[in-house]
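DATA SHEET
Item: assembly model
Revision: 1
Owner: S.N.
Input lines:
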Amino acid sequence: MNRGIAITGMGIISAIGNNVDENFRALTNSDKGISRTDNIDTIHKDEIMFGEIKKSNDDLASELGLAADHNFTRTALLGAFAARQAVANAGISNMSEYKTGLINSTSVGGMDTTEKHYYEYFENPDTIKFISAHDGGDTSQKIAEIIGLEGFVTTISTACSSAANAIMLGARMIKAGKLDRVIVGGTDGLAKFTINGFKTLMILTDTYNTPFDNDRKGLNLGEAAAFLVLESDKIVEKEGKKVLARITGYANANDAFHQTASSENGEGAFLAMQKAFKVANLDPTQIDYINMHGTATPNNDLSEGRAVARVYEGKDVPDFSSTKAFTGHTLAAAAAIEAVYSVLAIQNGVVYPNLNFTTKMAEFDLVPQTELKHKNIDHVLSNSFGFGGNCSTVIFSKN
Amino acid sequence: MAKTYINGIGCVSAQATTAGFPSEFTIDENANFLELVKPDYKEYFSPIASRRMAKGVKNGIVASTLAMRESGVENLDAIITGTGMGCIEDSDKFLKAIIDNNEQFLTPTSFIQSTHNTVASTIAINLGCKAYNFTYVNGAVSFESALVDAKLQFDADEVSNVLVGGIDEMTEYTKSLFKLAGFIKPDDSGPHDVLGSKTKATIFSEGATFFMLSDTKSESTYAELLDIETINKVGVDAVAHKAIEFLQANNLTQHDIDAVVLGFDGDVEFDEYYKELAREFAFTPQIFYKHVSGEYNTASAFGLYVGANVLKNQEVPQQLKINAVEKPSYHKILLYNQYRGIDHSFTLISI
C-alpha cells in the first residue's frame, strides 16, 4: 500500500445534516433526508421527492455573514458553508502560511439564479449582478473569498463524478509537491434545470429511491456540498496534525460508450477501480467497504453491479451500500459527501445500511448491506460516475 | 521526469486558422463581436451528425481532429478540456424550453448535450478512448487548469500523449446578457483600440483550440511546455513580481525571455495588469492577439497557439506586435492572461 495523502479536515451540508456529526448520526440511525420540496417552485413538486437542504438561501447567507446585496447563488452558498467548516475542522487559522489551493467541482454552478432571473435581467437592474454568477468558476471564486484563499483555484465539471475528480487532482498535486495543502470537494444546489433534465431522461423515481433493488425506479435528486482538507506529510509532521484518514488510490476512466448511459458491462467503472487498486497498491480483497455510486437508476446499478462483480470474480465481494437513499443524488457533490462518509466509516468502524432494499437484482448475486454493521475498516472504495462516460474511483485508508 | 512537447495544434476561431497559421489576420476595429470563421464541417462529420451537435462541440471536434492529425498520434492517454461557460447553446435551449413551456413538453437532447464535459466525452466516444477524461470550468483559467493537469501527468511519467483543449461558444441570448452586464462593448461604439482603450468591456468571440501534447519531440514539434501557474486573485502592484517569481521558479530571469504574449482585451478597467507587465518587459518583444481572436474564457488557448507559432516560425506577425523590439531568434516565450482582474495565468514555452 502506498502511504497516501493525509485528510486533516472535513465539512459538509446535505439533506441529512448541516455538519459532519449530524450527517453521521443520520447515517447510523437510518434517518433519510428525502422529502417534498419547500424551496423550489416546480410544477413537479407533488410527483417527486428530493434530497433537499431545508435552509433557505437567506439562512445560508446570514450564517455566512454576507452583505444584503451579495450575488452568491445557492451552489456558492452551500459550497462556502461546507468549505468554511472543513477549514475550521482542519484547524487552519492562516490560509497563506502554506501554498494552499482550492479544487472545487460543480455541475450546475449558478443555474439556480440564472433560471430565476433569465428574462428578468432586462427589466430588473437588481438582478444583473447574477449574470456573472452563472459559471462554475464564479462559484469557486466565492468559496475562495469566504475562506480567504488566494492562489491556485480551479473547478472540475464532469457531471456526477466531478468531486471524485477534484479529490483526485488534489491528491496528485500534493503528491507532486505542487501544493502543500488543498481544499477539495464539490457543491450543487437543486435547480429546475436538473430536475427537468433528469425528468426528461425518465430516471427520477416518484417515491424513495431504492439502490440495487430489482424493482428500482430511479433516483431522487439532491443538493449538497462537502470539502476535505488535504495536507502534505511535511505539514502533518511539523504541526502534529491529526490525520482523519488517507487517500491511497484514485483513478478516472471513460466508458466511451454513450453520453448519458453506462455500458452494460460497466467497462469504464471496471477500469477505474482496477487503476485505483494499482495506484493504492492494494488487492481488491483488502477493501472492507464499497460506497457505491448506486443512484438507483436501472442503468447505473446494473452497470456498476456488473463492474463490481467483474472486479471480484471468484472472490467475495466486500460489504457494500449506496448512501443515495439517505441524501438523494447530489450530482457534482456526490463524491464529496461520500468521501466524508467513507472517512467516517473508517474512523468509526461502520458500514452504512443501503436503505429501501427488498429484492435482489435478477442479473447478479449482489446483496447490499441493509443493516448498520460495526467492524474494523481499513480501506473504503468509493465509486462515482457521470454523464459522458466519466468513471471515477477513490480509495480511502486508515492512517 | 518526461518533457512536454506541443506536437500538434488545431484552432477554430474568428480567423481562418483551420488552414494553418494565418500570414494575414482580419481586423475589424468596429466590431464588438468577432464572428467565427466556420470550418467546412462536412469534412469532419455527416450532415446528420452535424445537425445534432452544438457549435462548440463541432468546433471542438474539428480542432481536436486537426491537432491529432498534425501530430500523427492516434492513441491518447488522456483527454483534458477547459471551458469557461460550457455548452451554453444547449443549456440556453433547454432552459428556455423549461421557462417558456412551464416545465412541460421537454425532450432530453439539449439537456444531455448541455453538460460541461460534452466535448471531451464526445471525442472519447468518437475515438473509443477509455483513458482519463477531465473537464475544467474555471473562467479564464479553464484552459490553463487543463494544462496544469496534463503537465502533472507528464512530470510523473504517467502519459505519452495527451489531448488538451479550450472551447467556448456564444449564443445570441448570452451575448445580450453580456452586453447588459457590461462585459461586451455596446453595439456601434467602435472603433475599438484594444491596446489604447479608454472604455470598459471587451470585444468578444468564441472558438476552440486543441493541442496534442507528447513526451517525445517530433518533426511536428512547435515548442516545449515548460510550466504553467494560475492565481485566482492578485493586485495590480504585485503582478510583475509574480511573473518574476514564476520565472525564478524555472531558473530563469526576465532577460531569458524573448517575447511576452499579453492578453490585452481593450477593457480599460482591467488593462492595468497588462500594462504593468508591458512596463516590466519593456525591452522584450511584446505580442497581443485578442484584437484578432476576441475575448472569451478560453481565448488564452489562442494565445498559446500564437506563442507556439512564433517559436516554430521564428517570427512575430506584424499585426500582433505591441512594440518594435525584435530578437534575432526566439527561444523562450512567457504568456500572461487575466480576465476582469481575476483568474491570472502564466505559461512558459521554449524551443
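QC remark: The first strand of chain B starts at residue 5 and ends at 12.
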